[in-house]
Automatic annotation (TrEMBL):
This is O-fucosyltransferase family protein. The chain crosses the membrane at residues 27-51. The gene is 11405540. It comes from Medicago truncatula. InterPro entries: FucosylTrfase_pln, GDP-Fuc_O-FucTrfase. Signal peptide: none annotated. Pfam families: O-FucT (PF10250).
Length: 538
């Protein structure tokens, strides 16, 4: 049994013969479909009726190849509110038959302590990977410690943000998790727990070769600054474990869930559907980006001072960063993009953000484009008071409202944007828009040289491949937390237009989002004018 497969039961299965694999791949699907249809023709000629599902399978292959066109090259109109292809996919996270049950605490290789790092969503990735590492090491995981010393200065513990009992019980078949190292074990130790930091994106072999021997020797081991310390590309079973942790086990506490759902309900009372925008236009984000946003010398000085907090950051060219697509859009640019995509000015927006750099003056152009803008502070001022001193709890509320939105717009490639994009793909490919900043930045600079229709058409062209469609990223590529391809399965194609009454067999699957687990859950400058307000068409 290979080292990487140590978390699976022993198996006698062998890999397919390489020669056979090569030969099988050399036959195109079109040839296979041709033979199928030829056979169907003979059967139909002789019997007058197609008595098999071969036709369905041939359509299935054609259907799959149709999905492969969803990479931005297809020029068919895109529904701006939901993907018409999402119904063909569902989240799948079930354990395989060779995935053995969790090792009991007394039989494990020791206790694994984890110190997460960063803000809420950065820590969320660390917690997810911590469970997987505990599985790899056959260790008992102690409920991770959250970061109290980061930029956000939040002293919340795990149990203040996540439902700790749900977390432990949900993962009981995967990893044994305890709230603390037993006192008996701590008293028996001659030395304090060994502390180490593993390299970023270490593969399972590293943990087995370098970490496991220390764990066996010291019995209790702490891994510090644990964020993105596990490789992106893992065995399918471990990837599905990541999904069970991230999308199911990490449920927020009841007060956070209740407040988040109340805000969602208040948005729904005003509009049947809404867009959530994660602006990420706070001073620290802008300073970190090294970009310039048109605020003159005052902006350069203010952001320059903030940037000094990170002593290792290199000197960057603001123009160069913008051309490379590394700069977040301004609130005005986000509004222009959304209007150009087809969202009318009576659309309701929920803005998830901290302190906006420039305040109301920065936000006003967005409000002119979309007057119906709301924030959690506007919708739940009194209920938020107990949370105001805790940035991670506030971020958790925003997370819920953004996840429940009909459309989510991520204005940067930060941790919250990636995690939410991945969860929305897993939960049914809910419309998720990521600005194609590299192309849009040049388009925004030249927008006064074209009329509105031309600008809108160009924006739509730029955004193809950035709208959250199922086929935008090839399976296995991209950050797994953003593109959890292993955990997104495809349903069989159902020919709804069949005339002979025959229906293909349906795949029986469980709805993974129901029950308590879903609680989380063309011209000159003068011609560049926005279209007049339109009635909402629901």
């Amino acid at each position: 049994m290979g080292v990487v497969k140590s978390w699976l039961l022993p198996t006698n299965h062998t890999h397919p013969n390489t020669k056979n694999a090569i030969c099988s791949r050399s036959i195109p699907w079109s040839v296979i479909c041709g033979f199928m249809l030829f056979g169907l023709g003979l059967i139909s000629l002789l019997t007058g009726h197609v008595v098999s599902h071969l036709e369905w399978y041939s359509q299935r292959f054609v259907h799959r190849s149709f999905f492969s066109t969803l990479d931005g090259n297809d020029h068919a109109p895109i529904d701006i509110w939901e993907s018409q292809y999402s119904k063909y996919y569902y989240g799948c996270k079930e354990r395989g038959r060779h995935f053995y049950p969790a090792i009991r605490e007394r039989m494990s290789n020791g206790y694994l302590l984890i110190a997460a790092s960063g803000g809420l969503n950065q820590q969320r990735t660390g917690i997810t990977d911590a469970v997987v590492v505990a599985r790899i090491l056959n260790a008992t995981l102690v409920v991770p410690e959250l970061d109290h010393n980061s930029f956000w200065k939040d002293d919340s513990d795990f149990a203040n943000i996540f439902d700790v009992n749900w977390f432990i019980n949900y993962l009981a078949k995967d990893v044994t998790i305890v709230k603390r190292v037993p006192d008996k074990v701590m008293r028996s130790m001659d030395k304090p727990p060994y502390t180490m930091r593993v390299p970023r994106k270490s593969d399972p072999e590293y943990y087995l070769d370098q970490v496991l021997p220390i764990l066996l020797r010291r019995r209790v081991l702490q891994l510090t600054k644990f964020d993105y310390r596990l490789a992106n590309d893992l065995d399918d079973e471990l990837q599905k474990l990541r999904c069970r942790v991230n999308y199911h086990a990490l449920r927020f506490t009841k007060p956070i869930r209740q407040l988040g759902q109340r805000i969602v309900m208040r948005m729904r009372k005003m509009a049947n559907r809404y867009i959530a925008v994660h602006l990420r236009f706070e001073p620290d984000m802008l300073a970190f980006s090294g970009c310039y946003f048109g605020g003159g010398e005052k902006e350069r000085q203010e952001l320059g001072e903030i940037r000094k907090r990170w002593t290792t950051l290199p000197d960057l060219s603001p123009d160069g960063e913008r051309k490379r697509g590394k700069c977040p859009l301004t609130p005005h640019e986000v509004g222009l993009m959304l209007r150009a995509l087809g969202y009318t000015n009576d659309t309701y927006l929920y803005v998830a953000s901290g302190e906006i750099y420039g305040g109301d003056e920065t936000m006003q152009p967005l409000r002119d484009l979309f007057p119906n803008i709301y924030t959690k502070e506007m919708l739940a001022e009194e209920e938020l008071k107990p949370f105001l001193s805790f940035s991670s709890r506030l971020a958790a509320v925003d997370y819920i409202v953004c996840d429940e939105s009909n459309v989510f717009v991520a204005n940067n490639n930060g941790n919250m944007a990636r995690i939410l994009a991945g969860q929305r793909r897993y939960m049914g490919h809910k419309r998720t828009i990521r600005p194609n900043a590299k192309k849009l930045s040049a388009l925004f600079m030249a927008r006064h040289e074209m009329d509105w229709d031309t600008f809108s058409r160009k924006v739509k062209a730029c955004q193809r491949g950035f709208m959250g469609e199922p086929g935008e990223m090839k399976a296995g590529r991209g950050e797994f937390h953003e593109y959890p391809s292993t955990c997104v399965c495809e349903k069989p194609f159902i020919d709804e237009l069949s005339e002979d009454g025959i229906r293909p067999p349906k795949l029986a699957f469980r709805n993974l989002t129901i029950g308590t687990d879903a609680e989380i859950n063309r011209g000159n400058e003068e011609s560049f004018e926005l279209p007049k307000p339109n009635e909402r068409t629901y």
